[in-house]
Amino acid sequence: MKKLRSYLSVAALALSLGLAGCSTAGTTAGTSAGAGTSSTAAAGATAAVALDTLAQDTHFDANDLTWDAASEVGVALADGASNVSSGSSDAVKVDGDTITISAAGTYRLSGSLANGRIVVAAGDKDTVRIILDGATITSTDGSPFVVQSADEAILYLADGTSSALSDASSYADQGTDAPNATLYSKADLTIAGSGSLTVAGNFNDGIASKDGLVLASGNVTVKAKDDGIVGKDYAVLLDGAYQVTAGDDGFKSDNDQDADRGWVLVNGGSLDVSAADDGVKAYNTLTIAGGTTTVAKSEEGLEAQHIVVSGGTTAVTSNDDGVNASGGSSTSSGGGMGGGMEVGDYSVDVTGGLLTINSTGDGLDSNGNASISGGTVVVNGPTANNNGALDVNGELTVTGGTVAAAGSSGMAVAPSGSSTQSGVQVTLGSSVPAGTVIQLADSSGTVVAAFTTTKATASLVFSSPEIVQGQQYTVYTGGTADGGAGLGHGALDGAKQVGTATAGEYTASQGPGGGGGPRW
Predict the structure, then answer these.
(1) In this structure, which long-range contacts are made by residues 427-431, counting pairs with CB atoms below 8 Å and at least 24 apart in sequence?
(2) Which residues pair with 300 in a beta bridge?
(3) What predicted TM-score, i.e. pTM, was given to this entire model?
(4) pLDDT class for 300, splitting at 50, 70, 90?
């Protein structure tokens, strides 16, 4: 197993570098699928982490996705009649409907098993590559695919094919170390290829690696009773399209024992999550450096001790907090209104990309500090006064980028005094309904911000490079704005002037950086 450097190195690179993203390598059997995405200029340049860097921080090696097709061992799956159909290998043992692979190599599986299992029991220095070539494997008493031992297992989805894995609703073996996921690995696991895979987790998790997990490509759909996709030491999405529906957390890493483990990186591809609990979660650091991440349903959208958004396009919908820096190894108390609350070892850092939050609870919440230095952050926050669009226990420092945070006024938090980019805080006398355009115009009448609300809104914090410290801005409601909900380009025809606000003047607040603001 490859030794990892600290998980902080990935986060640090995402914060400081604008490295070009790379697609995974093709193979003699096909080319890996899934195009990385790039954000708009307004959202900031994508800062994906380069593959050579990832190779130092994870088990991933793009060379493992290239092999000699002549070396493949073909295994034809059939109920009661599975056999080695091509090539020759003493490493494949067929025992009824259980196929065990015990050595390094490349194995191509096709056919189906109504109640069977694939078991990888190789040496701890072996890389086992299994190609799913239109394979459907179901188990009625446990997991249909188990990696008991190997250095690394690679599940490669053959080009133009669809495969499926489905487990039992109750496992015969529910011991402490027994498999608890449809696709279960005790070794480092990589999923790649341009084919499709459907995973039904009827008992517990859909995909789970007890070591590291890298999703290099593929079109994968997971529906799980508990967690959707779990990489204990780390969970990385490089490319491909992954759709997850989970009865608990969607995509996560949960190692809480090792300081350099328990981290998540979305570096490219697309991740769509609908979760009953947290959408994307890491025990230590969660980094979104590229690709498209959509959390369509969750209690808390993104959650980790440290959260970094440096690129890509991220949209979060949550029943509670949208982005929540909490948990992890810090023992600090969390939540609350910011001022007077303990500031723990938690952080949210946005340096690029587009982050859109639609939350019932706090929008962007850090039980420590938060910083925005690039990209675009749009918050459609809470309507209740016991939560805020921005909720930061420590300092909310804005030095760049664009921030538009709308929500209730009871816990409104604005940028702190350490911010070098100015902003405007608007607190309306009463909430305006969904669909209302709130506009800011400078002294010449030029609209510098237009925000269309998605729900009842009583306050708006706006910061961008166009806002000039000390300058007075006129606040309007109504008029028109393009682009639908959120930020757009506005026009004042038909708008109503409701007051003025001075950039950089944040009134004393319930939060550390200011709140309240002029009321009209």
Answers:
(1) 427/458, 427/459, 427/516, 427/517, 427/518, 427/519, 428/457, 428/458, 428/459, 428/477, 428/498, 428/519, 428/520, 429/519, 429/520, 430/458, 431/383, 431/456, 431/457, 431/458
(2) 278
(3) 0.89
(4) very high
Contacts of 371 (CB under 8 A, 6+ apart): 347, 348, 349, 350, 395, 396, 397, 398, 399
207 within 8 A of 231, measured Cβ to Cβ: no
Strand-pair category, 437-441 with 447-452? antiparallel
DSSP 116-139: -EEEEE--TT-EEEEEEEEEEEE-
Helix (H, G, I), strand (E, B) or coil at 218: coil
Q: Which residue has the tokens 């850092």?
A: 349
Say if CB 233 and CB 261 are below 8 A apart.
Answer: yes
Model pLDDT for residues 494-516, shown as the tens digit of each residue: 999 999 999 999 874 443 333 33
**Distance between CA atoms of 364 and 362, rounded to whole angstroms?**
6
Tens of pLDDT, residue by residue over 42-94, are 333 446 888 777 878 899 999 999 999 999 999 999 999 999 998 888 999 99
Identify whether the C-beta of residue 139 lies closer than 8 Å to the C-beta of residue 116: yes
Sequence-separated (6 or more) residues with CB below 8 Å from residue 255: 232, 233, 234, 261, 262, 283
SS3 track for 387-435 = CCCEEECCCEEEEEEEEEEEECCCCCCCCCCCCCCCEEEEEEEEEECCC
Distance (Å, whole) CA 71 – CA 79 = 26
Distances (CA, A) of 58 to 4, 66, 214, 254, 328: 6, 18, 8, 16, 21
Q: Both tokens of residue 394?
A: 């420590």
User: How far apart, in whole angstroms, are the C-alpha atoms of residue 281 and residue 485?
Assistant: 27
Token pair belonging to 55: 């190779």
Tell me if residue 331 falls in helix, strand or coil: coil
The token pair at 57 is 């921080």
Pairing of strands 205-209, 285-288: unpaired
What is the full DSSP assignment across 135-165? EEEE-SSS-SEEEEE-SEEEEEE-TT-EEEE
What φ, ψ does residue 318 adopt, rounded to 5°?
-140, 150
DSSP string, 233-266: SEEEE-SSEEEEEESS-SEEE---S-TT--EEEE
